[in-house]
Amino acid sequence: VAICKPLHYGTLLGSRACVHMAAAAWGSAFLYAVLHTANTFSLPLCQGNALDQFFCEIPQILKLSCSDFYLREAGLLVVSVCFAFGCFVFDMVLSYVQIFRAVLRIPSEQGQHKAFFTCLPHLAVVSLFISTGIFAYLKPPSMSYPSLDLVVSFLYSVV
């Protein structure tokens, strides 16, 4: 909105719209956390409860499970990744198509560069978050190395 319709920014993104967006983000994150927590605590662990990780990640907990109940959590992870990918496509691709179209209509080349370099850090951070999260949760178990798992977890959790 700031780039495509700068004169309408105050009316389109007022405090009410910001509250609605924040409430939607918090509500969906809470639902996501409750679903994973309930599924994780229902898993029977037969290999102890010690992880070779700094972070308590769901794929690492699934390795400790000795029953078929882990399939439910794995299914929930796949649905979550699909949902996150759908949001990524909807938010990022559609938004950035609109933004790049608006930027290309800016008459000065300096204005275009300034607008592009304003958007690129956001695009890079979100892409890093999504790609490392997808890699961490959907990589095959044969590619599981403790140091690689730790680096990937650190990237999408902290960075």
TrEMBL record:
G-protein coupled receptors family 1 profile domain boundaries: 1-159
The keyword Transmembrane is annotated on this UniProt entry: yes
One of the record's GO cellular component terms: plasma membrane
GO terms, molecular function: G protein-coupled receptor activity; olfactory receptor activity
Topology relative to the membrane: Multi-pass membrane protein
Subcellular location: Cell membrane
Gene3D superfamilies associated with the record: Rhodopsin 7-helix transmembrane proteins (1.20.1070.10)
Keywords: Cell membrane, G-protein coupled receptor, Membrane, Olfaction, Receptor, Sensory transduction, Transducer, Transmembrane, Transmembrane helix
Protein name: Olfactory receptor 14A16
Organism: Spheniscus mendiculus (Galapagos penguin)
Lineage summary: Eukaryota, Metazoa, Chordata, Craniata, Vertebrata
